[in-house]
Q: What sequence folds into this?
């Protein structure tokens, strides 16, 4: 697992991150220019857990995916002391109903000392094995957002600081 983790952490800064486009409750949101170049994580701050035995013992029989329960988790990751900085994230929103508010701009986001737990599950889709995230918990003790916008920047920065705890608990 150490070699795989070292490989992952070496290549993480160059991994592409897809743009986010969401339509929810009559509002369109988008985030662009997300990247992991300023993602900081030490290998000593990552624990990898297997539920029991080895992957081969629990999920494969004669080279084929076994009939493990559909919600059996395969791999757990626990991460501590995670830090990241996202510079110049392009954001946009547009309300699809009256009063048709819209805005756009850039934001700098800084996360420090975060923790995360992720469980990956093995499932069978038709005859093919698939892997999905079955659980994910994130704790953000330090989370700062600075917004740049021609029209709403001052308001969004004020709201960001007022509702910081609410946003942190929502994530």
A:
């Amino acid at each position: 697992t150490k070699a795989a983790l070292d490989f992952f952490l070496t290549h993480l800064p160059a991994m592409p991150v897809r743009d986010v486009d969401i339509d929810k409750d009559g509002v369109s949101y988008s985030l662009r220019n997300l990247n992991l170049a300023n993602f900081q994580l030490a290998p000593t701050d990552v624990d990898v857990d297997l539920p029991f035995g080895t992957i081969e013992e629990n999920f494969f029989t004669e080279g084929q995916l076994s009939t493990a329960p559909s919600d059996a988790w395969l791999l757990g990751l626990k991460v501590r002391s995670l830090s990241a900085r996202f510079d110049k994230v392009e954001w946009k929103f547009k309300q699809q109903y009256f009063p048709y508010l819209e805005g756009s701009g850039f934001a700098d986001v800084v996360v420090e000392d975060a923790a995360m737990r992720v469980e990956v599950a093995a499932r069978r889709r038709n005859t093919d094995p698939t892997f999905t995230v079955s659980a994910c918990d994130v704790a953000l003790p330090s989370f700062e957002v600075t917004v740049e916008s021609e029209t709403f920047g001052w308001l969004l920065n004020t709201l960001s600081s007022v509702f910081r705890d609410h946003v942190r608990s929502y994530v």
Observations:
- The two ends are 28 Å apart (CA to CA).
- Helices lie at 2-11, 55-59, 153-162, 164-170.
- The longest strand covers residues 102-125.
- The chain has four helices and ten strands.
